[in-house]
Each structure stands twice: as structure tokens, then as C-alpha cells.
């Protein structure tokens, strides 16, 4: 084995070992025990078996057919695990129903069948053997592709259902993480599938791409803190309803246009603490209280500036009618949210 081969073995095996280490962390070191983390750990472990088979097949000699077929069969196991993981990350209080185990039937059949594959049968050039092996191989990769597509469809549907609602930081983190995970699985799938249809793509590319993907995803997992959250993030709670009440008070009931409106006065009207009101506004509006109120004041001012009948009013008059206590604060807020001054905005819509 040359130096280049040794280097390739190290690179391709690094991701495998890293994936197993990450799985151990999720199952045994991570304090918060969540079903989603266990499912992700299983995906990493079984992917490691699959990648390990590829490394041994590429660099080893006389690899037993049992090991080859068993390694391929793990892709039939990973597909359902991906779907279950996506459900655990997007459904509150998700529990794995027993009938879901029926999805493991293809894996069970291929895995058990691998024990009956002899070396003589596997190495023969018999046309029937080639057809059977080729058909199984294609089925396995199409099965894996189907579950990747299914996970992408599930994510798209969930994202759409929350598109009209303010999203929390944790919800946005889950959407970003699951999107990256789909891309990672697509990259791995393509790297292996290209080797099947095109011999010019080296087989070792699969394990190498897996190493790159697993390192990247593990970094993103910690950055997004997805191991600390799961589908319970999407549980309906009173905070969103409370935020909608605050928005109605500020926007629809025009309380935001009152110059003396404050966090304290809104808290008293809502019967909640100032800390709770501030927390909910920050979570769903992604702004502090003052910016939240000023933003809606600016939107009201824009409506006035766009109305031809208000041309007789000065910028100062519109500022005070919008709830601002001074022209300077109005100009500052307007430029912050719209990028231009109120005077420039009025001129731009009149030209």
C-alpha cells in the first residue's frame, strides 16, 4: 500500500470514527436524553458500518460477500431512520409507533439474505447473478433516494405551515439544520451512485465525501444547538397567542400611535410583567419593545406620506400624528427602517 493509499484510508476513516464519536456523545454523554438524538446517533452508527464496508472493499482483498451485502443493506435501514428523525425534530411529543417498524422489512430481507450469498456465487460471471445483484443494488439506492426525497417533502410542508407565523430562534435553527442534513445525504448519495453508473468516479470518493459531510454537519449541529432541541419546539403555547394580543393592541387598536406608550403601560394593560412582554416581543418580532413600536409608527407614517390629501401637512405634523415625540426621533426611526428620510420618501413617491 503506497503513501497515497494510506492517506486516503486515513481521510476516509476519519469521518467514520468522528461519526461514531458523535453518536456516543449523543447517547451517553449528552445530558438531555431525547428520541431525536438517539435516532441521529443510530443514523451515524449505521452510516459508519456502510462507510466501513466501502473502505475495506476499496483497500482490502478477498472481502467476504456477507460483509459486502450487509453493508449495502444498512442503507435500507438508514432511510426509515431519516424519516423518523425528521418527524422527531418537527412534531411535538413524537413517539415511534410500532407499525413504523414495518419500514424495516426491506432491510431485514436483504440483510438475512446476505447470509446465504456464497463466495462462489458472488464471484461468478453468470448473467442471472449479475442481474440479481444489479437489481438489488439499484433498489437499495432508489430506496435511499426515496427517503431523502420524502424527508425533503416533509420539511417543505412543515416550513410552509409555519411561513405565516413568527418563528422562534429554535424553530429557525431546526429548519436550517434539517435543510443542511438533506443536502449532506444528497451529496453522499450522488457520490456513491455515480460510481455505479460511471466507473471513472473512484469508489473511495464515497467515504471521502462522507467524511467531509459528517465533519461539516457536526460543526453546524453544535453551532445551531440542535442537540438541545427537538419537535417540542413546535408545540403550540400561549406565548404566540400573547404576542398576537400585543400586536393587536399596538397595531390594530393604534396604541402605538400614543406618544406616551411604554413597556410598563403595555404590561399593565396585558396583566403581565414587563419582563414577559419584552421576552415575547423579542422572541416573535425579533426586535426590542421600542423598535417594535417605532417600526409600526413608521408604517403608519408611510401611509400618511403616500396619501395625496396629506401633502398639506408638514413632516413634523405627520411625525406627531404617528406617535413620535420629536422630529429628530421620527427621522432617525424612519431612516433606520426604510433607509431614507421621510422628506426623501415623500419626494420619491411624488416624482
From TrEMBL:
PANTHER family: ARAC-FAMILY TRANSCRIPTIONAL REGULATOR. GO terms for molecular function: DNA-binding transcription factor activity; sequence-specific DNA binding. The keyword Transcription regulation applies. The chain crosses the membrane at residues 6-28, 35-53, 65-86, 98-117, 129-152, 173-194, 200-217. It comes from Flagellimonas pacifica. The keyword Isomerase does not apply. It comes from the Bacteria. It holds the Pfam family HTH_18. PROSITE patterns: HTH_ARAC_FAMILY_1, HTH_ARAC_FAMILY_2. This is AraC-type DNA-binding protein. Keywords: DNA-binding, Membrane, Transcription, Transcription regulation, Transmembrane, Transmembrane helix.
